[in-house]
Amino acid sequence: MILGLDFGTTNTGAAVFDGHSLNLLPLDPASQNPAICRTAMYFTRDGQYYFGQDAINRYFEQNLGRRTKLNRVWVGEIMQVFAELPTFYRDVYVYEDEFSPGRILLSIKTTLRNKAYFGTAFRDQWYAASDLVATFLMAMQERVRAARQAPARQVVLGRPVHFSDDPAEDEIAQRRLLHAAFKAGFEQVYLEYEPVAAARFYEQRLHNKRETALVFDFGGGTLDFTVMEIGVPSERKILATGGIPIAGDVFDQRLFRDSIPKHLGEGSSLASGRGIPPYIFDSLSDWQEVLGLNSPDNLQALNKIKQEAAEKDKIEALIEVVTSNYALMLFDAVEKAKVRLSSQPETILAVKTERFGFAEPLTRRRFERLIDSEYRAIKQRLHETLARSGLEPKQVDRVLRTGGSSQIPLFVRLLEDMFGRDKVLGINAFSSVTSGLAVVGHEIETGQAEYKAYTPDSVPEPDVASSVTTHRGVRPRVDLSGIRQQLQVTQGILLRKDADLPYYVLLALEAGGKLSVSGADRLAFDETLEGVQLFAENSSHIAAALLIATGESDKVLLITNEFKLTLVPARSMLVSAKIGARGIHDLLRLQMDEYVTAMIPWTSARRFMCLVTENGQVRRFEAALLAGELRQVPYFRLERKYKGHAAFLVQADEEGELLLGTSAGRIVRVPVRELGNLTCQCIKLRPDEQLTAAAFTEADDDWLAVSRAGGAMVLGATGIAGQNWRGARIVGFAPLSEVNEGRVFALLAQGMAYLLATPAGRMPRGKSFLALPLTECESIASLLFLER
Description:
The protein is an alpha+beta fold. The protein is built from 18 helices and 45 strands. The strands form 13 sheets. Strands 1, 2, 3, 4, 12 and 13 form a 6-stranded mixed beta sheet that branches. β34 and β35 (666-671) form a beta hairpin. The protein is elongated and about 100 Å long.
């Protein structure tokens, strides 16, 4: 079946029709109505992509209340090539939030018609305008594949009657939309006007009864009119079309501009007698321009205004909105209040955060006054369209309202006054276009209708720039095939099918600083594991390793040779490793000569995080404070006051000790309470001696020390401070109780893992024994711990 896909400014839907039944496909599992997907994308610094309601939720989760640090960044020089004109070069600048965990993209359909918008840079890659749309459509394609258990190769895409009043912008928008669809994996694309599709959906109920219909398709980005004869397929024809680029997004801005700024200082008196510049609130009313208010010049101006303002609390709230990512939350509240005014005459726009709050009463009459100029323009365009059809209002049999904004009472009254209340019918506001596109797809497939089929070879590439030149060379165009592969890997997660991922993520630090990541199935505790190859036999020698589950909350804390601490989800690391050689490098934002030196599963169960260097230095951090820092910034950089690189990260509590082991077999216990918040030298190493193992132990635990050669020694709960295990290079410590429960594996440098076990009977403390027989070519690199 040919898919019908309505890619809308605000919402997106997909459906198929077999001639008898219509099937709306679930595109958004996080939405109250899975068949309606919010047209939203959220890209994160750790390489994750979120879509629909999940994108909005993730943005709020990661950004509300987060401080920003804005820099104006020159991302490069773009080359513009136009037919019969010289080649032009243009510098491209963007405002970039240095601390941002990701970027939210809304209303991306509107970028298609903007000739001056070529794209954006993110994570050191260049996204052309069609690439942004293609990324969203790829996600929808993967969700269609999951719903139908088969990919969709052919699609009928809806398009507005006019993307723009400018014919050149309309042409480039259509070409960008087509190429975005091709990049998303569709091989043949058919186009249909969105209001015509809505009429085709309604036509199914006419049963060959002829009607003259006017479709009033009013969504989030455009308003389209179509006057057509429907009902009898052989007599179906379009009499007139029209449209105007005014819709719900514009109304949101009007309501925002009128209701929000007064609570953020607009109209407040200043000591200088000047007013607050209107551009601040004009920019605030357009969420895509809010980031620019974070520029150093604007922040300096806002702080100066605060000093002069009589109502300092309101200016503080304004600065909080600008600098702590509350603008989108305000727009969301305004949009919901606007929707409520369609069903009730008045409502309250209430906003409450930890630092500011207000309640603004709104009435339907006030809203209608705010959009009066848009109302008049729409009314005039409607009359013009009807006039071009050659019909009088009384000759129209049916007026079909569709789209979210068509439910606004002011426009319902306009239609009823013009055509008569009995003729105006509201059809499914959010899925009538989707359904009509599916009906068209069925007719194309069965030969009942002929439409032009677009293919990748039949449409020229609309985006003139394939790359952006920077001072570091060429900023490459984003690898959409890599994104497609990532979306295929994560599709199970998005649909809440965690079983689609391996249960464990395996991380290994290899000789030379390379970080390897792979997945492993769950290892049952009741099975005897003689040995399993977890990493490739021909890989470099493994120096350290980590085994962590892929749950939503499972995260890894890593530190690099540049002493940068980064907290990332385990599943993000697994997905990043699957999308290309630079996946992990980009995920961790590593510099050219930077590499990971230590890692640990993150948990909030213990009070401290201890950093241990290879030269025996130890520093203790409050874990809660460290977590707070890592929520604010993509990484937390420590000062460079250490000897050697960071070798271990250990979580600890005040009542307990650090166990430290060396390459010469020495074992040292360090009480955590004696560690301050400054770096201290806990063990004086001899020449050619390194710290090779570290762990935290409670006072009443028995532990096992393990050597590189496969030996082991039981350490008692107390004593053995300064114990020498001559000839042993200690590679790890493990609680004896977990070893006995079969939860600890010895990982060889060659990638093979063996279950670690102790001999039967009681073993004397302080005496070594052979825990794992090895050949001369084998050695233990690290210990792996299964979750409790």
